[in-house]
Amino acid sequence: MAEKALALVLRTTDWSETSRIATLWTREFGKVRTLAKGGRRLKSNFETALDLLTVCSIVFLRKSSGGLDLLTEAQVVRRFPHLGKDLPALYAGYYVAELLSDLTEEYDPHPTLFDEALRVLEGLGTAGTATALRLARFELVLLRELGYSPALAACAACAAPLPPTGLAFSAAGGGMLCPGCQARHRDRKALSGAAWQALRELAAPGEGWQGAAGSLVRGVRKEIRQVLNQYVTYLLGRQPRLLPYLGS
C-alpha cells in the first residue's frame, strides 16, 4: 500500500552499488526504515532529497510483514543551510537525528515531536539562539513525548516536595532526589537550585522557556548538559555517538 508523508532524513547507509537504506522520521507514521532503489546513482529519482537533515515529501510502499519499506519518491521540501555555517549547531543537529533514530520505535508517530525537531533545526545556529539550551529543550520534549520525562516537580523516590537546596539528580532513580533519598542512589549528581528551576522551565509546555532560561550563566548551562547527558545515556544503555561534540 502506497503511503505519503512528510519526513526528516535521520540516517542513510549503502545497501548495494546502487541502492541505499534511509531511516526517516515522519510526521504521519513516526520512524520508518526504507530501501531507496537506485538511491546511490548520481541521477536518481531521489537526487539530493536523502541528504542528512533534509525535510522531504515521500511516497513509500509499506511491507506487510517485517523487512524494509520501499521508498518510491522523495522530493526536497526544506533544508537548513545555516547549520553548515556553525559547527556546534551542526553537531547538535546530528545529535537530534541520532536521538530520533535510536530512542524511537518504528511506526510510533508523535506529530508534536516532529514539529519540535523542525523548530530546533530551524533555530540552531541563528542569531540570539543559545545552542545548548535549544537542544536541552528538544531533549525534554522528546523525553515527555516518549514517556521518559524525569521527575522534576517532586522527589522521584518518595514524591516529597523538593527543598531549594541540597538537591541531586539520579538517572537510575528517574529524576530529582530530596536530601533524604540520595544515599540510596549511587549515580546521584548534585544539582544547584538554579539548574533545577531551569530544567523545570525548559520542560514546561509552551515557549515561555525562551525568556526564562535564555540568560542562564555558563555554570548552570553546564549542569543542565551533564544531567541530560547522564539521563539520555542511561536510557540508551550507551553514550550517544555525538555526545562528546556537544558544548554547554
Characterization of this structure:
There is one protein chain. Helix content is 32%, strand content 22%. By secondary structure, it is an alpha+beta fold. The chain has 2 domains: 2-78, OB fold (Dihydrolipoamide Acetyltransferase, E2P) (Beta Barrel); 82-245, de novo design (two linked rop proteins) (Up-down Bundle). The strands form 2 sheets. It has a 5-stranded mixed beta barrel with strand order 1-2-3-5-4. A 3-stranded antiparallel β-sheet has the order 7-6-8. Helix 2 runs antiparallel to helix 3 (131-145). The longest helix has 19 residues, at 218-236. The chain is elongated, with a radius of gyration of 20 Å. The chain starts with a strand and ends in a 12-residue tail after the last helix. The model has no long low-confidence stretch (mean pLDDT 90).
